[in-house]
Amino acid sequence: MKTRLTLAATAILIALTGCGSSSEPADPTKTDQEAGFACDDFALGYKSAQTTQARIDLADKVNKWAPHSQTNRIADMGAALSRGAEASPDAWQLAADAFAQACMDAGWEGS
Hints:
The chain is mainly α.
């Protein structure tokens, strides 16, 4: 009985404090946790993404986080990055530049 009460109390505490949930910024113009992870992954992998497959792999890694972000434009630019990765090098460059700009516009400074 005591174990069930402790588990129930823990579940209520987590629900009330928001632990375990996605961090949403008070201001969507600022970098939330998911955007930070996506921007970090992009920055770490961009220079080595020279082939189509490397670009696709990087876009997949970025989009592990980007779609879950509440930060302005990160999810949309992550989707554009995926489309650009499978297109021409020029399309990739445009998408990469747009994603990087969305990160910088949100105040991301790297980790």
